[in-house]
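Predict the 3D structure for this chain.
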Amino acid sequence: MIVGSAVAGGIGVVAVAAALTGDVEGGTGTRVTAFLIGAVFTLIGALPLLLRRIAFRPRRLLFDSTGLRWEDPQGAPWAVGWAELAEVTLGYPAPATGSARLGSAVNLTLRPADPAFHEAHPEMEHLAVPAGDGSRSYRVPFGHALSVVGPADRALRHYAPGVYRREGPEIPAPRDRPTAVKVSVAIVGCYWACAMAVALVMDASLSTLGMAALWTVVVALWLGRVWAGGALAVARMAGLAQVIGVLGLVTLGMLGLILLPMTDGPVARLLPAFLPGLATTAALLVSGRLLSRDDVRAWTVSRTWGL
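Done. Predicted structure below.
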C-alpha cells in the first residue's frame, strides 16, 4: 500500500506541476484534464498520511518460552501462556510464485485447553470464532502476509512443539541470495542509469527531468523488490528483460541489414556504431536468463515465507 501510494503520488505531483506550469501540449482543456488526473493520483499518494494511524501503527506478535503475546500499544494487546493452549494451528496457502493471484488468508488459531479461557482473557473476545465441537477458538488473522509464516513456524516449532500443528505446504529452508540476482540487478541498474543520462543529454527540460526522476524511483523500487526476493517482481523483471533484449537484438540486426548495402567499404566499419546497442541488449537478455534460473526461483520461494 505504502509503495504503491508513493508511486501514484509521484505521478500526480508531476502531472499537477506540468499542468500549472503549462508544460503540457494542447489547449486549456488538456491542461485542466492533466490537473484533475494529477490531483486524483496525488490524493492516492497522500492516503498513507491520511491513514497513518492504521498504515504506520506499531503491532507485532512475539513468541518466547512462556507463550505468545500481541503487542499493540494503540489497540488491544494480549498474552497467552503455552500451558493455557491445547493446540496452536498455523494455516496458510501455497505461495503464488510469479503470479498476482492471491491465495487464502494466513491465520494463527489458538484452541484453549480450559473452557474457562474466555473468562480469563476477555481482551481476546474480538478474536473468538466458533469451533466444530461447540467450543470457541481464537483466530489471529494476518491477511495474505505469507512473510510471517516462516518466522512463526520456526518459533512455534522451537517453543511449542507439543501443541503446534501446521496446515499448509512444507516450508523450505532459508537460502542465501544467488549471485545471479546480484549480477542481474547490477546490469539493469547500469542500463537504466545510462538510458536516463542519454535522455537528459538530449532534452534537459524540467518535464523530462521530472519524468526521469519519477521513473527512476519506480525502477529503483522494482529493483529493490527483486533484491529482496519478491517472486512477482523477479518474474516480471526476468520476462521484461528477455523481451527487451530479444527485440533489441532483432531490431539491430534488421537495421544492420538495411544499412549494409548503403555502406562503402568493409562491414567492420559498421561495428563501432552498433557495439553499444549490442552490448546493452545482450546484457539485458543475460539478466533475464539469470533471473529465470532454478536457484533464483527456489530463493524467491524461501523469501516468500519470510526466510
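The chain has a mean pLDDT of 85.
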